[in-house]
Amino acid sequence: MSQNNLLHFLAPNSRLPPDVAFQVTPSSSSTTTTTVSVPAHKCFLANASPVFDKMFYESDNSGGQRMVIEVKNVEEMVFRMFLDHIYGKEVVLEELSDVPSTFGMFQLMEQYNIKDV
Q1: DSSP states of the chain as a string?
Q2: Per-residue pLDDT tens digits for 14-66
Q3: DSSP bridge partners of 40
């Protein structure tokens, strides 16, 4: 992405607390079936994606509480790479371990209307 590297905001000791969490659940065929909570920041997500912008700022009725979004059939590692990309890290497709992971990344990019990989 063309923005600055914002990955330090994803660190647990970040001064900017997350205001949204993704509940990431892998597919039933995955070796791991545990749902994982992945925190993030609405402002960075909305800046990168018109889908997130609409979700957070046109139809946000969370009442100021931390929003939780379910993401199903995605491996945690793939979702974290997707978020890292939004926060400024370049996606290296060779780091995705297999075809389903690569496909999952492209699905996320399409679903949230992220154009550059």
Answers
A1: --SPP-GGGGSTT-SS---EEEEEE--TTSS----EEEEE-HHHHHHH-HHHHIIIIIS--STTSPEEEEEES--HHHHHHHHHHHTTPPP-GGGS-SHHHHHHHHHHHHHTT----
A2: 999 999 999 999 987 777 778 999 999 999 999 999 999 999 988 766 666 77
A3: 20
Cβ neighbours for 108, distance < 8 A, ≥ 6 positions apart:
74, 78, 79, 82, 114
What is the tens place of the pLDDT at every residue in 61-117? 666 677 899 999 999 999 999 999 999 998 888 888 788 889 999 999 999 999 775
Are β-strands 20-25 and 67-72 bridged in parallel, bridged antiparallel, or unpaired?
parallel
Burial class (CB within 10 angstroms; exposed 0-12, middle 13-18, buried 19+) of 13: exposed
Phi then psi for residue 65, to 5 deg, are -85, 160
